[in-house]
Amino acid sequence: MNVTTNREIERLAIHNIVKWVGEIDEREEILPLGNREEMMALLENAKGHELNNEERMIAAEMLVNSVVN
User: Fold this and answer.
1) How far is it, in rounded angstroms, from Cα 28 to Cα 30?
2) Can you give the pTM of this predicted structure?
3) What is the Cα 22 distance to its own chain's centre?
4) What is d(CA 38, CA 20) in angstroms, rounded to the nearest whole number?
5) 2-27 in b/e burial notation, b at 16+ Cβ within 10 A?
6) How far, in Å, CA of 17 to CA of 37, rounded?
7) Tens-digit pLDDT profile for residues 22-41
């Protein structure tokens, strides 16, 4: 794959994760940002099936950054 394709895949994964977090936030009182397994399960539930590798990597990075900041 070329760099442009990789960036587009990453951009789409980020877009999807943000969309799913918004959906989760609408129905959950508190987002379990400190609990990676629970948050990943909620994301997969919002998607309707397992996250792909890029989505899983982006979600994990976003979760680490949200807990640290």
Assistant:
1) 5
2) 0.85
3) 10
4) 14
5) eeeeeeebeeebbebbeebbeebeee
6) 15
7) 999 999 888 888 889 999 99
